[in-house]
Amino acid sequence: MGNHRADHRSPARAVVDTTPSGAARPVGGRRKATRRQSQANPFRKIPAVPTIVGAVAIVAAAGGALGVGGGELQAGQNLALSSGAADSFSGTDAFNFSGADARSVAISRDSSRQALEDAANKQTEAAVEEVAQQRNSELQSLAGLAQKRADQIAKNLWVLPTVGYHLTARFGQSSGLWSRNHTGLDFAAPSGTPIYAIANGVITSTGYDGAYGNKTVETLADGTEIWYCHQSEIGVTVGQKVVQSTQIGRVGSSGNVTGPHVHIEVRPGGGDPVDPYPAFIYHGVTP
């Protein structure tokens, strides 16, 4: 059965009789089992197809490289490009930049960056300097305006008309001493005590005026009139310019009085009198 299968699989194969010529065959017609000798394979020494294809690809790549570079492979040397169409691979990095060139590029890049930074710093300094100069100019302008305003305020500041005084009569009070309500503020002080101009102005009137006694009228820059009444002595003349704190007379008892004092009236625009007390407060002084 086994021999039949073998014969069926390979009908073309010939059975080789290895029994020596003239030797007696085994009894019973059975054949003696023998080992078949394998025939030599004629294709055994031929390389496999993938191996051949790989070799051909390597040869083609080498040939293409030589063709592109225009060079040739010389005995005893490595593969090199001789035409100058491409740089030598010796001493270059993966991007075909030599070490010296890379350092030069890095140094140039750093120098450019430093130059840009220096230019930016100079521009910033110039801008800061310009802003500082503009700010200083504005501050100087503001300082000038502030000084001007301070001067104006100082000119408009008032001072008290005398010293060592006490208030005896206020604005609006009524008494049999006056024909109508009191029109000013009375600063009582010893006779002869100096009387001072309470603000800057011009003397526009001096002389005796009935119940007011010896009276001096000072007109301020805004047209307000200040009346100084009941003086014992007048120390200024009409047309004279005075500044605050200038002595213009002395406390007395001239006119309709009960004792020495200086009667102060404030008349805006030369019109009817107003309460002097808040006017003093407004101009920076408290009687």
TrEMBL record:
Residues 1-10 have a biased composition (Basic and acidic residues). InterPro entries: Cell_wall_metabolism_enzyme, Dup_hybrid_motif, M23ase_b-sheet_dom. Residues 181-276 form the M23ase beta-sheet core domain. Coiled coil: none annotated. GO terms for molecular function: metalloendopeptidase activity. Residues 1-42 are annotated as: Disordered. PANTHER family: MUREIN HYDROLASE ACTIVATOR ENVC, PEPTIDASE-RELATED. This is M23ase beta-sheet core domain-containing protein. The lineage of its organism: Bacteria, Bacillati, Actinomycetota, Actinomycetes, Propionibacteriales.
